[in-house]
Specification:
By secondary structure, this protein is of the alpha+beta class. The chain has 2 domains: 253 residues, no CATH class; 120 residues, Conserved hypothetical protein from pyrococcus furiosus pfu- 392566-001, domain 2 (2-Layer Sandwich), CATH 3.30.1760. Helices cover 30% and strands 25% of the residues. A hairpin with a 2-residue loop joins strand 16 and strand 17. Helix 4 packs parallel to helix 6 and helix 6 packs across helix 9.
Length: 407
Protein backbone atom coordinates (compact mmCIF):
# COMPACT_ATOMS: atom_id res chain seq x y z
CA UNK A 1 0.00 0.00 0.00
CA UNK A 2 1.48 3.37 -0.97
CA UNK A 3 1.35 6.36 1.36
CA UNK A 4 -0.73 8.23 -1.23
CA UNK A 5 -2.33 7.26 -4.50
CA UNK A 6 -4.31 8.87 -7.34
CA UNK A 7 -8.09 8.62 -7.53
CA UNK A 8 -10.97 9.33 -9.91
CA UNK A 9 -12.16 12.65 -8.53
CA UNK A 10 -15.74 13.87 -8.52
CA UNK A 11 -15.56 17.55 -9.43
CA UNK A 12 -17.58 20.35 -10.96
CA UNK A 13 -17.57 20.74 -14.70
CA UNK A 14 -15.37 23.78 -15.34
CA UNK A 15 -18.18 26.09 -16.37
CA UNK A 16 -19.93 25.51 -13.02
CA UNK A 17 -16.89 25.51 -10.72
CA UNK A 18 -17.54 29.07 -9.53
CA UNK A 19 -21.15 28.12 -8.76
CA UNK A 20 -20.12 25.08 -6.75
CA UNK A 21 -17.10 25.86 -4.57
CA UNK A 22 -17.83 26.93 -1.01
CA UNK A 23 -16.01 27.61 2.26
CA UNK A 24 -15.18 24.57 4.43
CA UNK A 25 -18.18 23.17 6.30
CA UNK A 26 -16.76 24.12 9.70
CA UNK A 27 -16.09 27.84 9.15
CA UNK A 28 -19.74 28.86 8.75
CA UNK A 29 -22.66 28.30 11.09
CA UNK A 30 -26.02 27.27 9.68
CA UNK A 31 -27.38 30.82 9.42
CA UNK A 32 -24.25 32.05 7.64
CA UNK A 33 -24.34 29.08 5.26
CA UNK A 34 -28.01 29.67 4.48
CA UNK A 35 -27.29 33.28 3.59
CA UNK A 36 -24.16 32.43 1.58
CA UNK A 37 -26.07 29.84 -0.48
CA UNK A 38 -29.09 32.05 -1.13
CA UNK A 39 -29.77 32.17 -4.89
CA UNK A 40 -26.98 29.63 -5.53
CA UNK A 41 -28.66 26.25 -6.13
CA UNK A 42 -25.37 24.52 -6.98
CA UNK A 43 -23.35 25.77 -4.01
CA UNK A 44 -21.61 22.90 -2.26
CA UNK A 45 -23.09 24.22 0.97
CA UNK A 46 -26.24 22.33 -0.03
CA UNK A 47 -24.13 19.18 0.51
CA UNK A 48 -21.77 20.18 3.32
CA UNK A 49 -24.42 22.11 5.31
CA UNK A 50 -27.62 20.51 4.07
CA UNK A 51 -29.64 21.78 7.05
CA UNK A 52 -29.95 25.01 5.03
CA UNK A 53 -32.52 23.21 2.85
CA UNK A 54 -34.61 22.12 5.85
CA UNK A 55 -36.66 24.13 8.36
CA UNK A 56 -34.52 26.62 10.28
CA UNK A 57 -35.06 24.87 13.60
CA UNK A 58 -33.56 21.62 12.25
CA UNK A 59 -30.70 20.24 14.33
CA UNK A 60 -27.58 20.10 12.07
CA UNK A 61 -26.97 16.56 13.38
CA UNK A 62 -30.48 15.29 12.63
CA UNK A 63 -30.55 12.22 10.39
CA UNK A 64 -32.64 14.21 7.91
CA UNK A 65 -29.66 16.49 7.29
CA UNK A 66 -27.42 13.65 6.16
CA UNK A 67 -30.19 12.24 3.97
CA UNK A 68 -30.70 15.67 2.39
CA UNK A 69 -26.97 15.97 1.79
CA UNK A 70 -26.99 12.66 -0.11
CA UNK A 71 -30.05 13.74 -2.07
CA UNK A 72 -28.39 17.01 -3.08
CA UNK A 73 -25.18 15.27 -4.12
CA UNK A 74 -27.11 12.84 -6.30
CA UNK A 75 -29.02 15.73 -7.86
CA UNK A 76 -25.84 17.62 -8.74
CA UNK A 77 -24.41 14.48 -10.35
CA UNK A 78 -27.64 13.72 -12.25
CA UNK A 79 -27.83 17.29 -13.54
CA UNK A 80 -24.25 17.14 -14.84
CA UNK A 81 -22.97 19.82 -12.46
CA UNK A 82 -20.50 17.31 -11.02
CA UNK A 83 -18.61 14.80 -13.14
CA UNK A 84 -16.29 11.96 -12.24
CA UNK A 85 -12.96 11.51 -13.99
CA UNK A 86 -12.61 8.44 -16.14
CA UNK A 87 -9.31 7.33 -14.59
CA UNK A 88 -7.30 7.71 -11.42
CA UNK A 89 -5.53 11.06 -11.41
CA UNK A 90 -3.58 13.34 -9.17
CA UNK A 91 -4.53 17.02 -9.11
CA UNK A 92 -2.62 20.20 -8.39
CA UNK A 93 -4.34 22.81 -6.25
CA UNK A 94 -2.93 26.32 -5.92
CA UNK A 95 -4.24 28.83 -3.41
CA UNK A 96 -3.46 32.51 -3.88
CA UNK A 97 -4.35 35.09 -1.23
CA UNK A 98 -2.87 38.51 -1.80
CA UNK A 99 0.89 38.06 -2.13
CA UNK A 100 0.81 34.53 -0.70
CA UNK A 101 0.74 31.50 -2.97
CA UNK A 102 0.96 27.78 -2.18
CA UNK A 103 0.85 24.91 -4.65
CA UNK A 104 0.14 21.37 -3.54
CA UNK A 105 -0.98 17.91 -4.60
CA UNK A 106 -4.50 16.53 -4.27
CA UNK A 107 -4.36 12.81 -3.53
CA UNK A 108 -5.88 10.21 -1.26
CA UNK A 109 -3.76 9.20 1.73
CA UNK A 110 -3.53 5.78 3.33
CA UNK A 111 -5.74 5.11 6.35
CA UNK A 112 -3.35 2.33 7.38
CA UNK A 113 -0.50 4.83 7.49
CA UNK A 114 -2.70 7.21 9.48
CA UNK A 115 -3.42 4.42 11.95
CA UNK A 116 0.31 3.79 12.55
CA UNK A 117 1.10 7.53 12.77
CA UNK A 118 2.97 7.81 9.50
CA UNK A 119 0.33 10.41 8.73
CA UNK A 120 1.11 12.35 11.88
CA UNK A 121 -1.31 14.14 14.17
CA UNK A 122 -0.92 17.03 16.59
CA UNK A 123 -4.44 17.46 18.03
CA UNK A 124 -6.96 15.51 20.03
CA UNK A 125 -10.36 14.96 18.45
CA UNK A 126 -13.84 15.29 19.95
CA UNK A 127 -16.16 12.27 19.61
CA UNK A 128 -19.20 14.32 18.60
CA UNK A 129 -17.35 15.97 15.72
CA UNK A 130 -15.92 12.62 14.63
CA UNK A 131 -19.41 11.09 14.69
CA UNK A 132 -20.71 13.90 12.49
CA UNK A 133 -18.05 13.30 9.84
CA UNK A 134 -18.58 9.53 9.97
CA UNK A 135 -22.31 9.99 9.36
CA UNK A 136 -21.63 12.40 6.50
CA UNK A 137 -19.20 10.01 4.78
CA UNK A 138 -21.55 7.06 5.20
CA UNK A 139 -24.57 8.99 3.93
CA UNK A 140 -22.78 10.20 0.81
CA UNK A 141 -20.52 7.20 0.30
CA UNK A 142 -17.92 9.89 -0.34
CA UNK A 143 -15.39 12.12 1.36
CA UNK A 144 -16.18 15.69 0.40
CA UNK A 145 -13.99 17.72 2.75
CA UNK A 146 -10.23 17.39 2.13
CA UNK A 147 -7.74 17.03 4.95
CA UNK A 148 -4.99 19.66 4.79
CA UNK A 149 -1.61 17.89 4.95
CA UNK A 150 2.00 19.01 4.79
CA UNK A 151 5.20 17.32 3.69
CA UNK A 152 8.76 18.36 4.34
CA UNK A 153 9.63 20.24 1.20
CA UNK A 154 11.66 18.26 -1.34
CA UNK A 155 13.08 20.08 -4.32
CA UNK A 156 12.39 17.33 -6.85
CA UNK A 157 8.77 16.78 -5.84
CA UNK A 158 8.13 20.50 -5.52
CA UNK A 159 9.45 20.97 -9.05
CA UNK A 160 7.22 18.21 -10.49
CA UNK A 161 4.13 19.71 -8.92
CA UNK A 162 5.08 23.24 -9.93
CA UNK A 163 5.80 22.06 -13.45
CA UNK A 164 2.20 20.98 -13.92
CA UNK A 165 1.12 24.60 -13.43
CA UNK A 166 2.90 25.67 -16.62
CA UNK A 167 -0.23 24.51 -18.42
CA UNK A 168 -3.54 26.35 -18.19
CA UNK A 169 -5.64 25.25 -15.18
CA UNK A 170 -8.93 23.46 -15.75
CA UNK A 171 -10.46 25.63 -13.01
CA UNK A 172 -9.38 29.12 -11.98
CA UNK A 173 -11.93 30.91 -9.82
CA UNK A 174 -11.93 33.43 -7.00
CA UNK A 175 -14.12 32.71 -3.99
CA UNK A 176 -16.20 35.06 -1.90
CA UNK A 177 -13.20 35.47 0.41
CA UNK A 178 -11.08 36.78 -2.50
CA UNK A 179 -8.91 33.67 -2.45
CA UNK A 180 -8.01 32.37 -5.90
CA UNK A 181 -8.45 28.62 -6.40
CA UNK A 182 -6.55 27.15 -9.37
CA UNK A 183 -6.79 23.48 -10.26
CA UNK A 184 -4.95 21.18 -12.67
CA UNK A 185 -5.45 17.50 -13.55
CA UNK A 186 -2.49 15.09 -13.80
CA UNK A 187 -3.31 12.18 -16.09
CA UNK A 188 0.21 11.35 -17.27
CA UNK A 189 1.09 7.90 -15.89
CA UNK A 190 4.82 8.62 -15.71
CA UNK A 191 4.29 11.74 -13.59
CA UNK A 192 1.76 9.88 -11.42
CA UNK A 193 4.29 7.12 -10.77
CA UNK A 194 7.05 9.60 -9.86
CA UNK A 195 4.79 11.36 -7.40
CA UNK A 196 3.58 8.10 -5.82
CA UNK A 197 7.13 6.83 -5.41
CA UNK A 198 8.43 10.17 -4.16
CA UNK A 199 5.85 10.40 -1.38
CA UNK A 200 6.17 6.73 -0.52
CA UNK A 201 9.85 7.30 0.22
CA UNK A 202 8.95 9.80 2.96
CA UNK A 203 9.03 8.87 6.62
CA UNK A 204 5.88 10.85 7.32
CA UNK A 205 3.42 13.50 6.24
CA UNK A 206 1.62 15.79 8.68
CA UNK A 207 -1.99 16.77 9.34
CA UNK A 208 -2.23 20.55 9.42
CA UNK A 209 -6.02 20.79 9.57
CA UNK A 210 -8.64 18.06 9.39
CA UNK A 211 -8.05 15.78 12.37
CA UNK A 212 -11.76 14.94 12.65
CA UNK A 213 -12.09 14.18 8.94
CA UNK A 214 -9.09 11.84 8.96
CA UNK A 215 -10.21 10.12 12.18
CA UNK A 216 -13.68 9.65 10.68
CA UNK A 217 -12.19 8.13 7.52
CA UNK A 218 -10.28 5.65 9.66
CA UNK A 219 -13.45 4.63 11.47
CA UNK A 220 -15.37 4.19 8.22
CA UNK A 221 -12.55 2.10 6.73
CA UNK A 222 -12.71 -0.27 9.71
CA UNK A 223 -16.46 -0.78 9.29
CA UNK A 224 -16.00 -1.64 5.62
CA UNK A 225 -13.27 -4.17 6.38
CA UNK A 226 -11.24 -3.38 3.30
CA UNK A 227 -8.09 -5.15 2.20
CA UNK A 228 -6.05 -1.96 1.97
CA UNK A 229 -6.81 -1.45 -1.69
CA UNK A 230 -10.40 -0.20 -1.49
CA UNK A 231 -11.32 3.45 -1.94
CA UNK A 232 -12.47 3.54 1.68
CA UNK A 233 -8.93 2.63 2.76
CA UNK A 234 -7.79 6.12 1.69
CA UNK A 235 -8.93 9.63 2.57
CA UNK A 236 -9.15 12.83 0.56
CA UNK A 237 -6.17 15.13 1.09
CA UNK A 238 -4.42 18.20 -0.23
CA UNK A 239 -0.70 18.08 0.54
CA UNK A 240 1.51 21.19 0.49
CA UNK A 241 5.25 21.60 1.02
CA UNK A 242 5.72 22.85 4.57
CA UNK A 243 7.64 25.94 3.53
CA UNK A 244 4.75 27.24 1.42
CA UNK A 245 2.10 27.03 4.12
CA UNK A 246 0.98 30.06 6.09
CA UNK A 247 0.04 29.94 9.76
CA UNK A 248 -1.38 33.14 11.20
CA UNK A 249 -1.29 34.21 14.82
CA UNK A 250 -4.02 32.83 17.10
CA UNK A 251 -4.53 35.46 19.77
CA UNK A 252 -6.10 35.44 23.23
CA UNK A 253 -8.56 37.72 25.03
CA UNK A 254 -9.38 37.39 28.74
CA UNK A 255 -12.54 38.64 30.43
CA UNK A 256 -11.02 39.81 33.75
CA UNK A 257 -7.76 40.15 35.67
CA UNK A 258 -8.59 37.48 38.26
CA UNK A 259 -9.28 40.03 40.97
CA UNK A 260 -6.07 42.00 40.41
CA UNK A 261 -5.80 45.69 39.67
CA UNK A 262 -3.99 46.53 36.41
CA UNK A 263 -0.94 47.64 38.45
CA UNK A 264 -0.91 44.41 40.50
CA UNK A 265 -1.33 42.40 37.32
CA UNK A 266 1.65 44.06 35.63
CA UNK A 267 3.77 43.65 38.76
CA UNK A 268 3.08 39.93 38.87
CA UNK A 269 3.89 39.20 35.22
CA UNK A 270 7.20 41.09 35.46
CA UNK A 271 8.53 38.07 37.36
CA UNK A 272 8.61 36.16 34.05
CA UNK A 273 8.46 38.83 31.33
CA UNK A 274 10.00 42.16 30.55
CA UNK A 275 7.16 44.63 30.03
CA UNK A 276 7.62 47.72 27.85
CA UNK A 277 4.91 50.20 26.83
CA UNK A 278 4.59 50.80 23.07
CA UNK A 279 3.03 53.63 21.06
CA UNK A 280 1.39 51.33 18.49
CA UNK A 281 -0.23 47.90 18.32
CA UNK A 282 2.31 45.14 18.96
CA UNK A 283 2.67 42.37 16.42
CA UNK A 284 5.38 40.09 17.86
CA UNK A 285 8.45 39.86 15.65
CA UNK A 286 9.86 36.57 16.94
CA UNK A 287 9.10 33.59 19.19
CA UNK A 288 9.11 34.38 22.89
CA UNK A 289 7.67 37.84 22.30
CA UNK A 290 4.06 38.87 22.94
CA UNK A 291 1.84 41.90 22.61
CA UNK A 292 -0.48 42.88 25.45
CA UNK A 293 -3.35 45.37 25.25
CA UNK A 294 -4.57 46.65 28.62
CA UNK A 295 -6.64 49.76 29.40
CA UNK A 296 -6.03 51.33 25.99
CA UNK A 297 -2.25 50.76 26.10
CA UNK A 298 -0.12 48.29 24.15
CA UNK A 299 2.88 46.61 25.78
CA UNK A 300 5.61 44.36 24.41
CA UNK A 301 6.31 41.33 26.60
CA UNK A 302 9.45 39.22 26.30
CA UNK A 303 9.72 36.04 28.28
CA UNK A 304 12.90 35.29 30.21
CA UNK A 305 14.99 32.92 28.06
CA UNK A 306 15.64 30.77 31.13
CA UNK A 307 11.95 29.86 31.17
CA UNK A 308 11.93 28.37 27.66
CA UNK A 309 12.34 24.59 28.01
CA UNK A 310 13.86 22.17 25.55
CA UNK A 311 10.53 20.54 24.82
CA UNK A 312 8.53 20.67 21.56
CA UNK A 313 5.22 21.43 23.30
CA UNK A 314 6.22 23.45 26.36
CA UNK A 315 8.45 25.71 24.24
CA UNK A 316 5.56 26.81 21.98
CA UNK A 317 4.55 30.43 22.49
CA UNK A 318 0.98 29.38 23.28
CA UNK A 319 2.39 27.15 26.04
CA UNK A 320 4.77 29.79 27.40
CA UNK A 321 1.96 32.33 27.69
CA UNK A 322 -0.34 29.77 29.30
CA UNK A 323 2.23 28.34 31.71
CA UNK A 324 3.77 31.61 32.87
CA UNK A 325 0.91 34.10 32.70
CA UNK A 326 -2.59 32.90 31.84
CA UNK A 327 -2.68 30.03 34.34
CA UNK A 328 -0.60 31.31 37.30
CA UNK A 329 -1.68 34.95 37.17
CA UNK A 330 -5.13 34.87 35.57
CA UNK A 331 -6.19 31.52 37.01
CA UNK A 332 -7.22 29.84 33.73
CA UNK A 333 -6.04 26.24 33.88
CA UNK A 334 -8.12 24.70 31.10
CA UNK A 335 -8.68 26.94 28.07
CA UNK A 336 -10.93 24.30 26.53
CA UNK A 337 -13.60 24.80 29.18
CA UNK A 338 -12.97 28.13 30.93
CA UNK A 339 -15.42 30.72 29.59
CA UNK A 340 -13.19 33.62 30.68
CA UNK A 341 -10.86 33.09 27.72
CA UNK A 342 -11.61 33.47 24.02
CA UNK A 343 -9.52 33.14 20.89
CA UNK A 344 -9.20 35.51 17.92
CA UNK A 345 -7.76 34.33 14.61
CA UNK A 346 -5.06 36.53 13.17
CA UNK A 347 -7.05 37.00 9.97
CA UNK A 348 -9.19 39.46 11.97
CA UNK A 349 -6.24 41.71 12.81
CA UNK A 350 -5.03 43.41 15.98
CA UNK A 351 -7.83 45.97 15.83
CA UNK A 352 -10.22 43.19 16.80
CA UNK A 353 -8.23 42.70 20.01
CA UNK A 354 -8.50 46.42 20.74
CA UNK A 355 -12.23 46.37 20.05
CA UNK A 356 -12.89 43.48 22.42
CA UNK A 357 -11.04 45.24 25.26
CA UNK A 358 -12.19 48.81 24.57
CA UNK A 359 -15.81 47.65 24.54
CA UNK A 360 -15.45 46.38 28.10
CA UNK A 361 -16.25 42.82 27.00
CA UNK A 362 -12.68 41.76 27.78
CA UNK A 363 -10.08 43.09 30.20
CA UNK A 364 -6.84 42.20 28.44
CA UNK A 365 -5.70 40.85 25.06
CA UNK A 366 -2.52 39.11 23.95
CA UNK A 367 -1.08 38.92 20.44
CA UNK A 368 1.23 36.01 19.65
CA UNK A 369 3.89 35.18 17.11
CA UNK A 370 2.47 32.56 14.69
CA UNK A 371 3.36 28.95 15.35
CA UNK A 372 5.90 27.77 12.78
CA UNK A 373 5.39 24.68 10.63
CA UNK A 374 8.70 23.31 11.89
CA UNK A 375 7.35 23.50 15.44
CA UNK A 376 4.13 21.74 14.46
CA UNK A 377 6.07 18.92 12.80
CA UNK A 378 8.37 18.60 15.82
CA UNK A 379 5.35 18.12 18.09
CA UNK A 380 3.88 15.51 15.74
CA UNK A 381 7.23 13.73 15.44
CA UNK A 382 7.38 13.50 19.24
CA UNK A 383 3.89 11.92 19.23
CA UNK A 384 2.62 14.83 21.31
CA UNK A 385 -0.35 17.16 20.91
CA UNK A 386 -0.42 20.94 20.71
CA UNK A 387 -2.43 23.12 23.09
CA UNK A 388 -5.87 24.14 21.81
CA UNK A 389 -6.04 27.02 19.35
CA UNK A 390 -2.34 26.90 18.44
CA UNK A 391 -2.62 27.29 14.67
CA UNK A 392 -4.76 29.28 12.25
CA UNK A 393 -4.09 28.24 8.66
CA UNK A 394 -4.85 30.59 5.79
CA UNK A 395 -5.94 30.50 3.07
CA UNK A 396 -8.66 27.88 3.52
CA UNK A 397 -9.29 25.04 1.09
CA UNK A 398 -12.58 25.11 -0.76
CA UNK A 399 -15.19 22.40 -0.38
CA UNK A 400 -16.58 21.04 -3.62
CA UNK A 401 -13.54 21.45 -5.83
CA UNK A 402 -12.99 17.68 -5.76
CA UNK A 403 -14.49 14.79 -3.79
CA UNK A 404 -13.51 11.15 -3.29
CA UNK A 405 -16.17 8.51 -3.98
CA UNK A 406 -15.90 5.31 -1.94
CA UNK A 407 -17.48 2.90 -4.43
Amino acid sequence: MPLIRPFAGLRPVPEHAADVIAPPYDVLNSAEARERARGRPWSFLHISKAEIDLPEETDPYDSAVYAKSAENLAKMMDQGILMRDHKDCYYVYRLTMGDHRQTGLVAVASVADYDVNRVRKHEYTRPAKEDDRVRQIEALNAQTGPVLLAYKSQQELDAIIEGVTQQAPVVDVTGDDRVQHSFWVIEDDAIIQKLTEGFDAMDAIYIADGHHRSAAASRVAKTKGGDGEQNSDYFLSVIYPHNQMMILDYNRVIADLNGLSPEEFKDQIEASFTVAAEDAAVRPARPGEFGMYLRGQWYRLKISPALIPDDPVRSLDVSLLADHLIEPTLGIADPRTDTRIDFVGGIRGLTELERRVDSGEMAVAFSLFPTRMEALMAVADANEVMPPKSTWFEPKLADGLVSHMLD
